[in-house]
TrEMBL record:
Gene: pstC
Main function: Part of the binding-protein-dependent transport system for phosphate; probably responsible for the translocation of the substrate across the membrane.
Record keyword Transmembrane present: yes
Coiled-coil spans in chain: none
The name this protein goes by in its record: Phosphate transport system permease protein
Family per similarity comment: Belongs to the binding-protein-dependent transport system permease family. CysTW subfamily.
InterPro entries: MetI-like (IPR000515), MetI-like_sf (IPR035906), Phosphate_PstC (IPR011864), Phosphate_Transport_Permease (IPR051124)
Pfam families assigned to the protein according to its UniProt record, in alphabetical order: BPD_transp_1
Keyword Signal: no
Membrane topology note: Multi-pass membrane protein
SUPFAM superfamilies attached to this UniProt entry: MetI-like
Keywords, in A-Z order: Cell membrane, Membrane, Phosphate transport, Transmembrane, Transmembrane helix, Transport
All residue ranges annotated as the ABC transmembrane type-1 domain in the record: 86-313
Length: 327
């Protein structure tokens, strides 16, 4: 009997351990599912709040909006009011992405594959510190430092390439224009894109890199054929994170840009564009009643844009991941 009990004891302990593991796994699964459901519930609550609060301005006519809101343009409805703001938001974010993405990828590649270890650590630390700087500091830096520095450059662009609608002049003085905002936004989103891209580059399988080098590839050819295809989906994800930051940026844009309400690609002229977030920050202190509802309606438009950008990014990543070279 004693021998049989001693032989059965390990089996009993194993069954108890498995039962305990199943309980822990079940609890973890429930917790994770609840966390995911909570995120969806919060997102739905935000959307419902925006729709409910924006509905008075959505249902109001243009005459009612113009009479009730001092800063609402005359002879305009909500759609014609929101349209230029959406255009300015997308234009500034697109310009910032054009500047930041190539620069961020280059910095990430230098840190991960070219720089000595000590230099890579120091440079990575400095890049990460940029993400900790408040946006109001970026706004002050852009308005006080960047604006006078880029002024002669914008004047040269206007005089040399003014036949291109994007650089049509005359260039504003001071340079409180959309292109200056795009430069500051590019610096703000640079650490996000760089940090994510750097980590993705470092995850490239060593065997892929060594195989490319063994076949006679140079370091750049190895990066082009092994690292970049592997990291493609990660680069897209990093870029979308940066784009989300640029779309919602408020204080830097508010402090730098001379606002306007036009569908204009003239990024060197003042009083042409405005973004949704900066307009909300500028008008909210004096808004009340229907004015607040109108600002919330513009916030709803920004919410829809952000959701569309993230859904498009997820679709691109899901489509490209099978061809990323990770398998």
């Amino acid at each position: 009997m004693t021998t049989t009990a001693q032989q059965d004891a390990p089996r009993v302990r194993t069954r108890r351990r498995r039962s305990s593991d199943r309980g822990v796994n079940r609890a973890f699964r429930i917790t994770a599912t609840g966390a995911g459901a909570l995120i969806l519930a919060v997102l739905a609550a935000v959307a419902i709040f925006l729709v409910i609060e924006a509905w008075p301005s959505i249902s109001a006519g243009s005459e009612t909006l113009a009479e009730s809101i001092s800063w609402f343009p005359e002879d305009a409805n909500l759609l014609t009011f929101v349209g230029p703001l959406v255009f300015g938001t997308l234009l500034g974010s697109a310009l910032a992405m054009l500047i930041a993405v190539p620069l961020a990828i280059g910095i990430a590649l230098f840190i991960s594959h070219y720089a000595p270890r000590r230099m890579a650590q120091a440079l990575g630390y400095v890049i990460d510190l940029l993400a900790a700087i408040p946006s109001v500091v970026y706004g002050l830096w852009g308005a006080i430092v960047v604006t006078p520095v880029v002024q002669p450059v914008w004047e040269w662009l206007s005089s040399t390439l003014g036949w291109i609608p994007l650089f049509a002049g005359p260039a504003a003085n001071p340079a409180r224009v959309m292109l200056t905002v795009a430069v500051v936004l590019a610096v703000m989103i640079l650490p996000i894109i760089t940090a994510v891209s750097r980590e993705v580059f470092l995850q490239t399988p060593r065997l892929h890199e060594e195989a490319a080098l063994a076949l006679g590839a140079t370091r750049w050819e190895m990066i082009r054929t092994a690292v970049l295809p592997f990291a493609r989906s990660g680069i897209i994800s990093a870029s979308m994170l940066g784009l989300g930051r640029a779309l919602g940026e408020t204080m830097a844009v508010l402090m730098i840009l001379s606002p306007g309400a036009m569908y204009s690609f003239a990024v060197l002229q003042a009083g042409q564009q405005q973004t949704i977030a900066a307009n909300i920050a500028a008008q909210y202190p004096e808004a009340s009643g229907l004015g607040v509802s109108t600002l919330i309606a513009t916030g709803l438009a920004l919410f829809v844009i952000t959701m569309a950008v993230n859904m498009a990014a997820r679709a691109i990543v899901a489509r490209r991941k099978d061809f990323s070279g990770a398998n």
